[in-house]
Design goal:
Two copies of one chain form a homodimer.
Chain A: H1 3-9, H2 12-17, E1 23-25, E2 32-34, E3 40-50, H3 61-79, E4 82-92, H4 97-114, E5 117-125, E6 129-139, E7 154-157, H5 163-167, H6 181-188, H7 194-199, E8 206-209, H8 214-225, E9 228-232, E10 239-240, E11 243-244, H9 247-252, E12 259-263, H10 273-277, E13 280-286, E14 291-294, E15 300-302, E16 313-314
Parallel strand pairs in A: 4-5, 9-14
Antiparallel strand pairs in A: 1-2, 3-6, 4-6, 7-12, 7-13, 8-12, 9-13, 10-11, 14-15
Helix pairs in contact in A: 3-4
């Protein structure tokens, strides 16, 4: 038995502990088998994390496990989907059992928190890279797309923005002040907004998770929907306890994993209290193209959404 | 727009040309959406190919595209599934448009040949790695597992073995003799046995695709089914035109992508002529553990299946 097969055994608890009813056959055969409930569609997304690009070299493997699964599941939340399972393609430079065990502990914690079972995977030798594909289900036709925003819709986000970007300067600090720990949590332990996304099905006209920054990700909604928007700078939440992200970090910082959603304004007061309380209205969709920011002093700024329509996800 | 987004656009024809009816939403949103037909299960498998591990450095990108998709779809064939779509997580050291265009041409050719649409993907910067996840469907409960082989079942393969291994010594030869071109095709252009797999649903008791060699892969069936087998050396097909793989290559060479199946012997004469003609019976399942090879001189050899039960796929 090779060293990589021993490593493979370390992943077994991930399949066994969180097995969902939808997963009829997990790891160990040519394929896994999932049963999608009648009247539902399968929703899936793939994300790659490369060491040195998407996470720092020598990053804590337990944190990496949590973060990799959270980032992937966040795409399901943005569709309003119920998470079911995931596959993991892991490329490792060597068979370091302690490192892998720590990765598995982080994945396990996130698996239990998000209700997703490991359904299959592939472990190969090579430069450290994780590719996760997550599977969820939505009632037929109820997946929330990026393309449904209409003029007059409200723009809302599910929580404060910019925290992960603000955390970057503290990442290498061995003893950061306690006030920045909410920022560091935001970077190390993002929490996908699964429940909010699910409860916005049939309500939100469009949704996206904020991985590349508010301006870029709202820009994807605007592009896909053929509309524009204005935002009110003072309304953009960016407080984390007593720490605060800058407006710049909130607009352009990545890795927040809050949702940005649009919804018709009459829908807002109809939402259950806990859902509407979790939404921060920050602006409105306009028919005229462009994303504008209204400053408290009345100045209006045209924001750079930058990246254009990402037909195929990149970096 | 970044160079990686330009690269992303090169993949657009893959989603548009081969779009299957089951894919309701392809690349370009947070997730893709697939509708699994009523009475069917989703079947899926993930495979990673790393440069220098799973394919040679400087390998022709058009060949790589074909091979990557063929290898992935082969896992669907081994379940008896109908292919539907796939995702591609591509990590690239740089945005080399000509290289990517050639990769896309190989993927496109294979997509059309195997009837699978690109449903989503992720392009990242890093060492050259491809991770493909393929999705297929089978009627509920009819996926062919590794665990169903029973004593008395016949062991059969769908074609000659060892060709890819025999090709290895010719890979670097600029002008290989024409007699070895069937071997080289076997390596560069494997063809997953989709139709045979599909038509063995409800007939085969177990199946696997031969990626690691007959002994290792049949070994997985034996382990999962709790049985043994004997093989007749003279019955193992290994002729490719006028070239021939060695018995060693046929037993232990990888990358063949034929299927190894087991089936009750009364089922064989009931199969349609073209299916039974594509099966080469090479041995029989026994209740006693171990994989034995019967040589023409009567000698009986215990084969090394080597890798044990691969709960989680490795290398």
């Amino acid at each position: 038995m090779g060293e990589f097969e021993l490593i493979g055994r370390l992943f077994r608890p991930l399949a066994e502990i969180t097995r969902q009813e939808g997963v009829l056959l997990g790891p160990g055969d040519d394929c896994a088998i999932q049963r999608v409930p009648a009247g539902h569609d399968l929703v899936f997304s793939v994300d790659t994390l490369v060491e040195g690009v998407h996470f720092p070299g020598q990053y804590d493997p337990a944190r990496l496990g949590w973060r990799a699964l959270a980032v992937a599941v966040s795409d399901l939340a943005a569709m309003g989907a119920d998470p079911v399972c995931y596959t993991l393609a892991l490329t490792l430079p060597d068979a370091d059992e302690a490192w892998v065990a720590a990765l598995v502990s982080g994945l396990r914690e996130a698996s239990l928190a998000f209700g997703v079972a490991l359904a299959g995977g592939d472990i190969t030798r090579g430069p450290l890279t994780l590719t996760l594909q997550v599977h969820g289900v939505v009632p037929e036709g109820q997946g929330i797309l990026r393309s449904g925003a209409r003029p007059g819709d409200l723009v809302a986000v599910t929580g404060p923005l910019g925290g992960a970007a603000a955390a970057l300067e503290w990442l290498d600090d061995p003893q950061p002040p306690s006030s920045v720990s909410p920022l560091l949590d935001c970077y190390h332990r993002p929490v996908p907004k699964i429940d909010t996304g699910r409860r916005l099905r049939g309500v939100a006209s469009a949704a996206i998770d904020i991985s590349d920054g508010l301006a870029a990700d709202l820009g994807h909604i605007l592009e896909a929907s053929g509309v524009g928007a204005w935002l009110e700078a003072a309304a953009i939440p960016r407080r984390y306890g007593i720490a605060e992200a800058s407006l710049e970090q909130a607009l352009y910082g990545g890795d927040d994993y809050q949702l940005c959603v649009t919804l018709p304004s009459p829908a807002l007061p109809m939402l259950p209290g806990d859902v509407s309380k979790s939404l921060h209205v920050i602006g409105e969709i306009r028919s005229a193209e462009g994303l504008y920011l209204q400053h408290p002093d009345g100045a209006r700024e045209l924001l750079t959404t930058g990246t254009g329509y990402d037909h195929f996800k990149t970096e």
